[in-house]
Specification:
The protein is 84% helix and 0% strand. It has 400 residues and is mainly α. The protein is globular and about 55 Å long.
Length: 400
């Protein structure tokens, strides 16, 4: 495959995650009212999807090491298409939650394979650059997600927003079937043996480079998840922003994220991995402190509006554009012989943290930005400490 084909495929496979989460965000308030759902049930459509997404990767990863990336992608995308149709047609909240869980499980194949493909084809530094290009494609896709979801919800119905996921899944499945060629250097016939799996995960989990980048990836996603799962209620219901206006705001954030991924490639070329992540850590910490400070000083005052939520988030997304590609390629960099298993374990850890975070947010949300600000600041601090102290020490896989 040409480099451009790889980038397009990476963009679509990685973009499946924001499509699955962001398109339906503007529909959440309408969905909640029509299905008479509690806030905890609404959060479960998000948290349940992510838990299934994380757990499924522990299965998809070894399967891809055993049988190859292509068959796993075809199976996973086919299942995603069926689950998306089921979610759009679900007549009740329990069935919608079940369909979203199935979506998350299928989505795990796409995102896990995307990270493994980068390690199959590229060395660590070049892999980070290619991951950055793929994530730029993700950003382009994400720009349209929330506005499309808002328009479909306002002009048609919230079910139309969920049906759009099936269309994206069908397009991605067709491209994988027609253009993707196998990338795994050699299939491991013992990849599914329990003893082999246990030894592989034990070796991966004890590697300091994996631990460092997995912590960076997990904290980065947890901060983003905190914003995504709370912002519709803070911005639409508490601050009175329209669903379309919310979509436009999310699209603007995606543009900032694209700028961050473009800056990442320049910084990697000029400074290398460790110094680039260190600098981005300061950007992220500033974003978290600003979000917490504005929420504490301004909530309930006339001048407080959408900008007090968006400005810190935009700053965070700039740093996220550096942390995400570096961390996702860094977790698999030390393991060229079992990239699928490493990618799977990293994905599981990320979602295992996001699930209880979603449950906590469901209990803490009270119509103010308190839960958003508290969670966002906490995870931004973890990101910064990891970037400042762990990445400089353990960020080079060749040293360990």
């Amino acid at each position: 495959m040409s480099a451009s084909t790889v980038v397009v495929l990476l963009g679509l496979l990685l973009g499946l995650q924001p499509v699955t989460t962001d398109v339906y965000l503007p529909a959440l308030p309408a969905l909640q009212h029509e299905l008479a759902a509690s806030m905890s049930q609404v959060q479960l459509t998000f948290a349940g999807l992510l838990l299934a997404f994380g757990c499924s990767q522990l299965v998809w990863g070894p399967l891809s090491d055993r049988f190859g990336r292509r068959p796993v992608l075809l199976w996973g995308m086919g299942a995603y298409l069926l689950a998306s149709l089921a979610s759009a047609l679900a007549p009740s909240m329990p069935l919608l939650i079940a369909a979203r869980v199935a979506q998350g499980a299928a989505m795990g194949a796409a995102v896990m394979c995307a990270r493994a493909i980068v390690r199959d084809l590229y060395e660590p530094l070049e892999g980070a650059r290619m991951m950055s290009r793929g994530l730029s494609g993700l950003g382009v896709i994400a720009v349209t997600c929330a506005p499309v979801g808002g328009l479909l919800t306002e002009l048609i119905h919230w079910r139309a927003a969920l049906a759009a996921l099936a269309l994206f899944g069908a397009v991605t499945l067709a491209l994988v079937a027609l253009r993707f060629h196998e990338t795994i250097p050699a299939r491991n016939p013992r990849a599914l043996a329990p003893g082999t799996l246990w030894q592989a995960w034990r070796r991966i989990a004890r590697h300091p480079t994996f631990v460092t980048y997995s912590l960076l990836a997990t904290a980065s996603y947890a901060a983003l998840f905190t914003f995504l799962s709370t912002s519709p209620f803070v911005l639409i219901e508490a601050l009175g922003l329209s669903r379309f206006g919310y979509g436009v705001l999310m699209a603007a954030g995606s543009l900032v994220y694209i700028a961050g991924t473009m800056a990442c490639r320049r910084l990697l070329q000029r400074w290398g991995i460790r110094r680039s992540v260190w600098a981005a850590g300061w950007v992220t910490f500033t974003a978290g402190a600003l979000m917490a400070g504005l929420a504490w000083l301004g909530w309930g005052r006339p001048w407080y509006g959408w900008w007090a939520v968006f400005v810190p988030q935009a700053l965070f997304l700039l740093g996220h554009g550096v942390h995400q590609p570096v961390s996702q390629s860094g977790t698999v960099a030390p393991f060229p012989d079992m990239a699928g298993a490493a990618s799977a374990l990293n994905g599981f850890i990320m979602m295992a943290v996001a699930f209880p975070m979603g449950l906590w947010l469901g209990r803490m949300m009270d119509g103010t930005p308190r839960a958003l600000a508290l969670g966002f600041f906490g995870w931004s601090t973890v990101i910064a400490l990891t970037a400042w102290f762990l990445v400089p020490r353990h960020g080079d896989p060749e040293r360990h």
